[in-house]
What does this fold into?
Amino acid sequence: MSDQAILRIEAVEKRFGAVRAVDGVSLEVGSREFFALLGPSGSGKTTLLRIVSGLEAPDRGRVEIGGTDVTRLPPYLRRIGMVFQDFLLFPHRTVAENITFPLKMQGRTVAERREQLDWILGFVRMEGLENRFPHQLSGGQKQRVALARGLVSRPELLLLDEPLANLDRELRKEMEIEVRRYQEELGIPFVYVTHNQEEALTMSDRMAVMHQGALEQIGPKLEVYNAPATRFVASFVGAPNKLTGRAIEGDGARSRIDWDGITLIARSIGNARPGDAVEIYLKSERIALSASADGIHHDNRIEGTVRDIIFKGQFADYIVRTGNEAELVVSGPPSIAGVDRGSRVSLGWPVEAADVFATEDGEP
Amino acid sequence: MRGRRALHLDPRVRFATLVGPGALFIVLFLLIPLLSIVVFSFWRTESYELISDWNVNNYEAVLGEWIYLKFLLKSLAMAAAVSAICLVYAWPCAYLIAKHGGRYKLVLVLLTAAPFLTGILLRITAMQQILGPIGLVNMALMELGAQPIQVLMYTNIASAVGLIYLWIPFMLLAIYLSLFNFNFELLEVAKVNGARPWRAFFEVTWPLNWMGTAIGIVLVFIPTFAASVTPRFLGGPNGSMFVNRLEHQFGSAGTWALGSAMGVVMCVASLVVIFVLWRTVRLRRAGFTGAGA
It folds into this structure.
């Protein structure tokens, strides 16, 4: 992929006063890729996107788009599209004028603009609305116009800065699929910034997780989800149970961990010595739950009592109080034979289901 | 109790009590005097007395005789020039304050209005001290052995400088308030979409702030058009404006009817300017969306 990377970021750094907003980030985005940049607010993901767009200049490092060094190029010469969180449509321009704005800036003729407009209106399913003004549109329609404006000139790269964050849940679900379709049909690389892991996981091919200005992990989304490389990624992606304990035996093929009186078996923690503090991240859907101990055939098996069942529709969260006075959240089908509030249940999970990390000097 | 409730709930009563006092004031002190001026303008004056002999001779004189028309055109030109210079000067100032003023925005804007802490006469006198023959500028030039700048001494230029100084805060304030509500992020959108900085300004910033700018133009144009003290103090022998001629009709000349006609002409001219500017403001195109966003 590296030989046909459209976007290449090399060791980019940006400070705001004493804050390192972006701290030595390098990454590449391929020519037909949907790339998500996931991170909590303040992690530097939006700053990184603004550096790519040219709205912000990096203190150090290089940005290449389509093989050209654009680090010092102003945004209006970069030939990219960008979609913003607050839509940011021009309130004094109609839908058609908003969408064709990039073409007008490129000096295309009225006929060309008209042709491209008709194409993109059909593409984003906004036919018949071209003479409306932005304030006459719903939130979803505004975002479609913003996306159309970003795509109309078929840029080399489309940057999206939390474009769905201002939409309600239903609409967001619909737009996630819609945005994914745009990317697949046009084959333009998308760089999609979000703090919402669901969006990143739903839409992207590859994703990067950012934390405090630095990249924590970068890879195919399933890899990031299934094999978090760092403690931060493990805690941020998925909705994991966090268990803190101490290593009993850390450096074998498997480790044994004391979790407040319960002994758990997990993957090797490498250089952890007995007594070292460790954290276990256990995704709720990876825990098996059964009304009887016979139903669990995993390396780890513990007993507990169901304190509550939170019905979520297609599935349910079972909140199980364990023998050591802790609580685990287990996702399962909406109803399990013999399991109700107050039921005694058995939980279990295989060794590889849990992500284990040694914590530095025992700090949580 | 029922009676009081009814009184509060009846929208007509509420409307009348809210609007009544203000409306009465306007009718008494603005509309009636204005109407009487209109009436007088169709009368004639003889030996300092108004005679209700309906005619249009006054208007024929104001609009037909060069001695009056000249001053009307001169005043309009002066007001247009002063507005234009205020516009060009105030825009960048307001823009810088709105965009880069940070938390000192309000202070900076209030500072531009600081001259209002004194009266207009004092400010004009201060301008005389700067521009006049023994004023700061020319004194300094002469001390340095240079020739004094003649145009600053009691000329129409001096009077324009004074008017710009007096009214520029209004222009600045109007533009600033417009920019205060302007979303500067839209400029970033324009740039990302290929607009160079000046193009972005004329595509986005200017049209979205034209309404505020037009208000600023009106706020400078109208008082400049009606200015009398400034040209009298700074304008010198040739500084007389339409308003000064008008004052003369009510003063020593005693031709009240002619003066009234001049007043009506001024009023109409001002309204025409406001109307023309209003026509350029298309609310939707100004990004104005009414109460519902």
The longest strand of chain A covers residues 5-16. Chain A is about 25% helix and 35% strand. The radius of gyration of chain A is 24 Å. Chain A touches chain B at residues 53-55, 74-76, 78-82, 84, 86, 88, 90-92, 101-102, 105-106, 133, 135, 149, 153 (CB under 8 Å).
